Amino acid sequence: MDQIYLEYTFKVTPANPGTEILIAELGYAGFESFVELEDGVIAYIQKRDWNPEILSELVILKNPEFEISHTSLEIEQQNWNQEWERNFHPIVVDGICTVRAPFHQVPDTKIDIIIEPKMSFGTGHHETTHMMIQFILQNDFVDKTVLDMGSGTGVLAILAEKQGAAAVDAIDVDNWCYLNAQENVLRNDCSKVQVYEADASILSGKRYDVIIANINRNILLEDIPVYANCLNENGMLFLSGFYKDDIPKIQERCEEFSLKFVENLEKNLWVAVKFIN
Predict the structure, then answer these.
(1) pLDDT digits (tens, 9 = 90+) for 61-92
(2) For site-directed labelling of 21, which of 29, 167, 220, 267 has its Cα 20 to 30 A away?
(3) Residue 238 phi, psi dihedral angles, 5° rounding
(4) What's the mean pLDDT in 232-259?
């Protein structure tokens, strides 16, 4: 069954910092993808996830310091390719890793990842994906067994292999993400990434040296016990998909299962956090 997306175009005055704040709130409310404009942002959410209360709950829309207007339209899945090709620009993380589309010029960076996201989340443009890429670049993945939970396009799983991982499981509950990740794994000539369409129940009996989970706070809080049970001694757990204010809840939940907080990265109100077993 085709996924139907709603496209919301927001005009924001002043655009800086209003657009960044709006994107953070929209991401927390369930919007999946964003295209930043000079005077605002285009945001996408699945129609099935939409409800009329979403916009009324956005704090920034009630802030008199910003003037924000919006228009919306419904988009069928097959129209997405044209939309993202028009707006998707390569990103470079820490001068080391480029994430780009197949039609972009080959970059002069150590790592080159080619992603055709279609309707899947994870091009590196969103703050959470960007910070998870940073964590993978900053930590030792050589010969590690890795789980990428909520893998979306598969960009983090692909990067894990490029950073020397021995084996990577990329798991997402969404069928479109599953199919898209398979395509991107092949596109990047990855031989050590296995893609699965499943939820955390598939993890029973599995063990990993590194677990990456970029999902959302509520799912993380529910699945942290499963991650802890799958993590090898001295293993690393990287979590993102939530705000800085959520760190205490995430940390408390992790400490229930002897996972120790190490550090966090922060970008435009979003955070990524590292724990060790």
Answers:
(1) 999 999 999 999 987 655 455 555 566 678 89
(2) 220
(3) -115, 125
(4) 95
Phi, psi of 156 (to 5 degrees): -70, -40
Torsion angle of alpha carbons 218, 29, 178, 161, nearest 10°?
Answer: -70
Q: Is the same domain home to 10 and 36?
A: yes
Return all residues near 69 (Cβ < 8 A) that are at least 6 apart.
10, 11
Which H or E run includes 11? Answer: strand 4-13
DSSP string of 46-59, one letter each residue: EGGG--THHHHT-G
Asked which of 29, 58, 81 is the last residue of a domain, the reply is: 81
C-alpha–C-alpha distance, residues 277 and 231, integer Å:
7
Q: Count structural domains, the chain.
A: 2
Structural domain containing residue 98: 88-276
> Considering 33, 58, 81, which residue would you say is the last residue of a domain?
81
Give this prediction's pTM: 0.74
